[in-house]
Every structure is written in C-alpha cells, then in structure tokens.
Predict the structure.
Amino acid sequence: MLKNAFIPYKGYYSSPFARWQGSFANENAIKLGAETSRRWFEKKQWDPKTIDYLFLGSTVHQPHGFYGGPWASAMMGADNIPGVLISQACSTSTFSIYQAAIGVETGMYETAYCLMSDRCSNGPHSVWPNPGGPGGQLVSEDWVMDNFNRDPWAGGAMIQTAENVAGEAGITREECDAITLRRYAQYQDALDDDRAFQKRYMFPVELKISKKETITIEADEGVTETNAEGLEKLRPVMPDGVHTFGSQTHPADGQSAVTVTSREKAAELSEDANVSIQVLSYGYARTKKAHMAMAVAPASQMALDGANIKAGDLTAVKTHNPFASNDLYLAKTIGLDVETMNNYGSSLIFGHPQGPTVARLTMEGIEELALKGGGHLLVAGCAAGDTAAAIVLKVG
C-alpha cells in the first residue's frame, strides 16, 4: 500500500469524448492534448514548470510521436522537464497514474503529470518491407481496425473474447441488454441540471478551424439514445452471440489528465483542502487466451488486497466496460452490485478513446465520492491481450 501519493482535488480534467470520425478526427492527439493542458493550467493559474515529470499515455501512433513525451511537455508550457510515453492499450491511464504515484512515493519527484490523449479516428496505416515477398510486396497494417479485429496471439476479434466469457459464465442476451439500459440511465444522471456532474471535471477543447475561426467542444459527441425497444431489435454482432452494437462501446477521441503529488503539495493545490485523494494500490492480471473480460476480476482482487480492503468496503466502483458482459462477470465473480457500479457514466456509453478512458472514469469516481462524503474507489478494466489493470483510491 502506498502512503504518500495523492491527487489534488480538481487536479485533473477530461475533455469531452468525440465520436469516431467526429470533431477531433483531424487533430494530432498529442498536440491537442498538450494545448488543452496548457489552457487548463492557465485557467487554474498553475505554473506548468512546477511539474517534475510527464507521463504521456497514448496508444494510437501520431505524427512526431517519436518525440511524444518531451514534445508534449514543451507544448503545455513545461519545456524544462522530460516525459515518457506509456502505451498499454485500455489500461494506459491506470498504469500511468500508478507509475506517477510510485515516483512520488519513492521521492523521485514531488509532482508528476499524467496526460492521456488518443485519436482512434483516421488511424495510421503502417507498412514494412517484406524482402521475401513476391515482387517485394509490403506488409501493411491498419493500426486501429486490424488490431481491434485480431489478436495476433489469441486470434479473433475483441468481441469474440467477450462472447467466450459470456458463454462460459452463462451470461444472456437479456442480461446484456438490461445492463446496457442501466448504464445509459446512469449516464443520463450526469446530464441533469445542465450537465452539472460532468462540469465538475470536464474541460472544453478548442479547435482552430482557420486563422479567424475557433470552435469549442464542451460536451460528448456520439452517445446513442438507447431504449429497450431499440436494443431488442438489434441483431447480435456474432452469430448466436449475446452482444449487439448497442451493448458494446464505440471508438472515440479525447484527452484526460491527472496530477499526482505528495500529501502536502496536494493540499496546497486542491480546490478544497478538506478533500484528500490518496492512491493506495494497483492490481494487474492476464487470463487465459481469448477471455479478456475475465482478467478484470483477479486484477481488481489484487488491488483490493493491496489496499487491505474487501469488495464490500467499496463506496464506488468504476469500470472500463467495452462489452456489457464485462460488468456482469466482474460483479458475479468478486461480489459487487452490478446495478450500482458506474454511476454517472462508463465507456460502454460515452465511448472509448483508449488511453484517456480510465482516467475519465477515475475522476468521475472521485467526484461521486466527494458528493457522498468520501470512501474507497475501485477503478478497473480489461485491456488488449487478455489483460486487465485496477487501482484503488481513498477519498477522505
């Protein structure tokens, strides 16, 4: 268990998530993330040069990504610090936050900044020479779609892993549709009172359309209106499967950032010094081939054990749930109430830009606990390669 790694209250933000091929589709994710962070620092009147180290979380390669960490830190106003690129598929945020926490805990630096930014839209197309191929033909890969559709180790698309878990656990189409409706209703709660809950952590993105025109994106794009009748009419994505396009997430674009620092510095930077946010523990796991959703349970249990708490001690649970069966399996396996997980939103509904997703879930969980008066938060989710990661925070 960590003792001295804290997140300042409101020392984080998430952009709105834009639909695939939507408003952010033509923006360099690293550049847009850094520019948004620069504006965020200005609004908070924080000096970026007080940051000691940058963790840049990005999973879809962008132009100039070779220089990603130091380039991003310079653009956001911290040209005095280095940065490292972390790319761990859907658990990029989880790993970045915990690595920052370890650095603070060991005294390597006082304040670290985790900037996660990804753009699934207009994904890169890679080519490699194939000297042994007929006529010197190239080997090519669509960075996003080819990897969504085939795991080179397990074989098959990601949705196949969800169907494998659903089949083994006895999860039904009706359960998947029902939990999708529940998650949609929870997301609607975040939109009440002119998006009052989302405005607790969400920061708008400015896009320069031309020399004279700049537009501002303030709210999520691409959330599909969902009801029981509509879900019932959808066909399964795979023959005899339990998931439809309504009960799985959609690719998106977005950014998020989290500051990790010492107890004393967190109190200094927090908007409310009475709210403390401590990073306690981390968990990870890899499950059997082509059963990705199963990995979330042992990763979560490892994080709970590291924090010396049980599932029943949790006040809030947030999950990256690319498929409805993820939450159903996790809840059944470690003893959670599937109905009360993911209050105010989850990636099943608002989309999945890869790197930034779990960071947004983390700040939603923090804000939920701030409203409830504190408690323990578990944030967990699966990641490519039948892996998963989880983190436990204490909000006091």
Q: What stands out?
A: The radius of gyration is 20 Å. Residues 173-189 form the longest helix (17 residues). The chain has a mean pLDDT of 97. Residues 59 and 78 are 22 Å apart (CA to CA).
